[in-house]
Amino acid sequence: MPNEIFIIKDRCTGCSSCVKVCPTHCISMTDRKEEGVRWKKLAVIDVDKCVFCNACVVDCDKLFDKTLAKGIKDPDFFHAIVMHKEESAAVNIDTTAYKGVWCYAEQRHGKLVPTIFELLNVGGQMAKDLGEEVSAVLIGHKVAQHAQTIIEHGADKVYVLDHPVFEHFVDEAYAAAMKDLIVAEKPNKLLMPASIIGRSFASRVAIMAQTGITADATEFAINAKTRMMHATRPSFGGNLMATILCEKHRPEMATVRPMSFAQTPRQAGRAGKIVNVPVDPAKWNIRTKFVEYKAEAKEQIDITSAEKIVTGGRGLGNPAGFKLIEEFANSIGAAVG
Ligand code: SF4
Ligand code: SF4
């Protein structure tokens, strides 16, 4: 039986909660035309865009559980979405068709963030072990000039997606662009920094590309026999190191904890390929609108790339106590964390 998802009309209250959790924006609300209906709106799913992630089902079921918790016995609403997923169809991909290790080159306000050089270190080693290319993906506006720098730090190829829609970070747009590129180019592995921006859209990319992701990994290895990535991350407060595999989906994705790997040195004049990728935002149905960027009153050292971090705890007494920490951090060129 193929994948299937539908709304039980009588149970849908039209609350629109499911619309907000759908990563592919394939749920919309319509007006019910019938006279004397109990609920005015009805959720409708565009099945062609659905990736069967189950998020809406979980969301609607939670509303049902909350209703029960309020003491309403056997409510005849919520629990309104039914999904049947054929597992074998979802995992039947030819993993050998996916080649190359990709590293996401983060930029903020047009400035390249040096985490890409850490990713190129670990990604480059994995590419070498696999006998494949290591590439970078650079998304932004007026950022193309960074491509050569990235090549000089070890990338064989840089995909550049340069468009005004990427001027400010909006995870919907960035994730849609990355997903389209994955579908077109079929990378084998994809590393992204576990920074605020990287975390913000890496999980969205994984859902849209229907693959798995290891968050905040600090060690990587390639299994010579299976050619799979073994991504290891600390768990339970660092008491356990968990090695996570993504066996049946591609690309194997991971976010990489900043400062876990040394940066690749620059080799001036190193040659590589720059691929300018056409961007067509009209097809993405981006609902998030950038309103305003407010910089911190005082420029602080970015904690993700700081070599020194000063931190404080309960002993400081109250938030005002953190002023001491900030003064000390400023005096030694450290970040506050
Ligand atoms: S399907 Fe469920 S969550 Fe979505 S609008 Fe209907 S009742 Fe609300
Ligand atoms: S299963 Fe996922 S993609 Fe499909 S409608 Fe629900 S939330 Fe959207």
Describe the structure.
With 337 residues, the chain is of the alpha/beta class. The chain has three domains: 4-91, Alpha-Beta Plaits (2-Layer Sandwich); 95-284, HUPs (Rossmann fold); 296-337, no CATH class. The chain is 26% helix and 23% strand. It has helices spanning 17-21, 55-69, 87-91, 115-130, 146-152, 171-185, 196-208, 322-332; strands spanning 4-7, 27-31, 41-45, 81-84, 101-105, 107-108, 111-112, 134-140, 157-162, 189-193, 213-217, 219-222, 229-235, 240-244, 252-256, 273-276, 309-310, 335-336. The strands form six sheets. A seven-stranded parallel beta sheet has the order 11-15-10-5-8-9-16, with helices on both faces. Strands 12-13-14 form a three-stranded antiparallel beta sheet. Strands 1-4 form a two-stranded antiparallel sheet. It is globular. The N and C termini lie far apart (52 Å). The mean pLDDT is 92. The structure holds iron/sulfur cluster (2 copies).
Keywords for this entry:
Rossmann fold, binds iron/sulfur cluster, 7-stranded parallel sheet, globular, alpha/beta, 337 residues, 3-stranded antiparallel sheet, 8 helices, Alpha-Beta Plaits
In brief:
The chain has eight helices and 18 strands.
Structural class: alpha/beta
- Order of strands, widest sheet: 11-15-10-5-8-9-16
Find the CATH topology of the largest domain.
Rossmann fold
Instruction: Using the coordinates above, name the CATH class of the largest domain.
Output: Alpha Beta
Q: Quick one: CATH superfamily of the largest domain?
A: HUPs
Give the biggest beta sheet.
Answer: 7 strands, parallel
Number of domains: 3
The geometry reads as globular
Task: Estimate percent helicity.
Answer: 25-40%
By CATH, the architecture of the largest domain is named 3-Layer(aba) Sandwich
Order of helices and strands: EHEEHEHEEEHEHEHEHEEEEEEEHE
Low-confidence stretches: none
Could you report the average pLDDT, rounded to the nearest whole number? 92
Task: Catalogue the ligands.
Answer: iron/sulfur cluster
Strand content: 15-25%
- Please work out how many helical segments DSSP would assign: 8
Distance between the termini: 52 Å
